[in-house]
Amino acid sequence: MIKGAVAIFKRDFKKFLSNPFVILMTLFMPIMYLVIFGNAVGGTITHIPLGVVQEEPYNDYTPLYTASLHDLKTLAQKDYPRTFDVAVYNDEQKAKRDLQEGIIKGVMVFPSPVSRDHAVRLYVDSSDYATPGLIQAGVQTVLARSGATNPVQIDKIYGEIKYIQFFGVGVIVMAIFMTTMFGGGIALIRDRELGIIEGYLVTPVKRSSIILGMIGSGTVRAFLAGFTIFLVDLLITGIVIQSAEDYLLVLLVLFITSLGVTSLMVSIASRFTNQQEYSSVAAFFSLILFMTSGAFYPTIGMPDWLRWITTVNPEYYAVDALRSIILRGQGINVIGTDLVALLIFSGAAILLGIFTYRRTLE
Amino acid sequence: MEPQTYDGDGFTPGKTAADAGVRDPSEGSQGPREHSIRIRHLTKVFQSKMKTVRAVDDISFDVDRGEIFGLLGPNGAGKSTLIRILTTLLQPTSGSAYVDRYEITQDPEKIRSIIGVCPQNSTLDVELTAYDNLEFYGKLVNVDDRLLDARIWELLEMTGLTDRAHLRVQTFSGGMKRKLEIVRAFIHQPLILFLDEPTIGLDPESRREVWEQIIRLNQEDTTIILTTHYMDEAEKLCHHIAFVDRGRLVTLDTPDNLKQTIPTGDLIEIGFASMDDRLLPEIRTNDQINSAEIRNSTIFISAKNGSGVLPAIVSLLARYSIPMRSISIRPPSLEDVFIYLTGKNLEEGTGGESRTPPGGHRR
Question: Is the pTM of this model over 0.95?
Answer without folding.
Answer: no
